[in-house]
Amino acid sequence: MEHHNSEDSDNVYQEDKFGLNDGFFSIEEFNKQTEMLELDNAVLDQSEDESDHESNIDSEEEISSNMGNANDVFYNDFFQPPPRKMRRDEQQVNFLERQKRKSDNQIDEPSLERTMRDVRKDLFEDDSVHEDSDESILEDDPSDTKTPKSTHERQQAKLMKEIRRLEAASVASREWVLAGEARAADRPLNSLLEKELEFERTGKPVPEVTAEISENIESLIKRRILAQEFDEVIRRRPDDLSKSNIRRGIFELDDNKPQQSLAEMYAEDHVKANNPDTYISKANEKMQKEEREIEALWKGLNIKLDALSSWNFKPKPPAPSLTIVSDIATITMEDAQPTTGSGISGAQNMLAPQEIYKAGRDQNNVGKSDIITRSGLPISRQEMTRDQKIRRRRRAKERISKRGTRTTGKSRPESISKSI
Question: Per the UniProt record, which residue ranges are transmembrane (predicted)?
C-alpha cells in the first residue's frame, strides 16, 4: 500500500508560481539534478580513471543480470503512467512529507553552497576581474589628488559617476505624478490639491469674476461714455424697414441660361484684359444705345423748337453721313451678272424643292426593264437584289388584295338589293 502511494505521489505534479511545471517538466527536479551533477563532478574529478573502470564493470554486471525472458517485458517497465494534477486533499496529506524532504535537503546545503561557489568562480572569474576594475574606477574620486591619474582616467571616472547616478535615478521609484495613472491608494491624501491638472472640458469654461476684471469693465464703460462711442442699434421707424430694399453683403446669383458660348466668353475676357479702354460690355452697350436715342430725340426737339420760335426759316444742322463710292465704271456695274449663271435667277429662285423636281415625272421615258421606286429614282431589274424583288412582289399582292376588298364592298349592297 505504501509502495502504491509512493508511485502515485511521483506521478502527481505541483504548480509553481511561475507556471513552469506541466507534468513533463519539473523545475524542482531540474534544480536537484543540476546540483547533484555539479557535486558529482566536483567529487569525482580526482578519481576519474578509477570511476570509469568501475562503471564499465558495473554496466557489464547490470546487463548480465537484466538478461531474462522476453515474454516478461511489459509497457510499464519502460514508460511511466501519464501524470495527473494533485488534488487538494492529496496536497494536505503530502504536506508533511514535503517538509521532511526539505529538511533533509537542507542538511547538505553547506556542501552544495561550496560547490556552487566554486562553479561560479570558475565561470565568472573573467567577468569579476572586469567588474572589479570598473568598481575601482567608480570608487576613485576624480577630485582626489593623492593618486596621480591621467586625463583619460579622470574623464572615465566622471563618465562612470554620471552613468551610476542616471542608473540609480532610473531604477528608483518615481512620484505618483510621473507614474502614469494613479489610484487614490497610490498617492498621498489631498495630493491633487497641490497639483495643476490638465483635463479636457466638454463646454467653454466660465470666466472668474475678479476685482481686476470688474475694474477694467468699469473703466471701459466710462471711457466710451466720454468719447460717445456707443454700439447700440440705431432706432428706425417700422415704415422705413419695409421701404428699404438694401441687401448688404448678399451676392445675387444669376440663374438664367447664358446666351454666349464658351468661346465668346473667353474672347470677351481676352479683349477686356488687353484693351480695357475700348472694351464695352453688354450692359454698357445697352446704356450707350439708350443714350444715343435720347440724344437724337433731344436734337429733333431742339430743331422743332428753333423752327417755331424764330421768324426766319432755319434748316436742319448738318449731320455726318457715310457714303461708299466704288471706283468702277457705271456700264460695268450694269452688265454684271451672277457667277452661277442666269438660269437660276428669276422666278425659279422662288420655287420650292418639290416644284423643281417631282418624283415620277419621267415615267414615260423609263424603259420596260426599269422600275421607279418611291423616291422617284429609276432602277433596273437586274440591279435589284433578291430581297428587294420579294419585297416589291409582296407590296403588289397587298395592293391587289386591298383593291379587291374595296370592289367587293361596293358590290355587296347591289347583290343584296337584287336578292330582295
Answer: none
Alpha-carbon dihedral 30, 36, 37, 38, rounded to 10 degrees: 110
Domain regions of the chain by residue span: 1-63+74-86, 262-293
Look up the pTM and report it: 0.20
What is the rounded end-to-end Cα distance, in angstroms, of the chain? 139
How far apart (Å, rounded) are the C-alpha atoms in residues 271 and 265? Answer: 10
Summarize the chain as % helix, strand, coil (round to 5): 55, 0, 40
DSSP annotation string for 278-296: T---HHHHHHHHHHHHHHH
Walk along the chain (420 residues) and give the pLDDT tens digit of each residue. 444 444 444 555 566 666 666 666 677 788 888 888 887 777 666 556 555 555 555 555 555 555 556 677 787 777 777 766 666 666 666 666 776 666 665 545 566 677 767 766 666 555 544 455 555 544 555 455 566 788 898 899 999 999 999 998 888 888 888 888 888 888 888 888 888 877 777 878 788 888 888 999 999 999 999 988 888 777 777 776 666 555 555 667 777 877 888 898 898 888 888 888 878 877 788 888 999 999 999 999 998 888 888 888 778 778 778 777 777 666 666 555 555 444 444 444 566 776 766 666 666 666 666 777 777 677 888 888 999 899 989 998 998 998 887 766 555 544 444 433
* Phi, psi dihedrals of residue 12, rounded to the nearest 5°: -95, 135
Q: Is the sign of the CA dihedral 313, 318, 324, 325 positive or negative?
A: positive
DSSP secondary structure, 187-253, as one string:
S-TT-GGGS------SSPPPPP--HHHHHHHHHHHHHHHHHT---PPPP--HHHHHH----TT-PPP
Grid cell listed for 130: 572586469
Beta carbons of 10 and 82 less than 8 angstroms apart: no
The three three-digit cell numbers of residue 137, written as one number: 574606477
- How crowded is residue 111: how many other Cβ atoms within 10 Å of its Cβ? 13
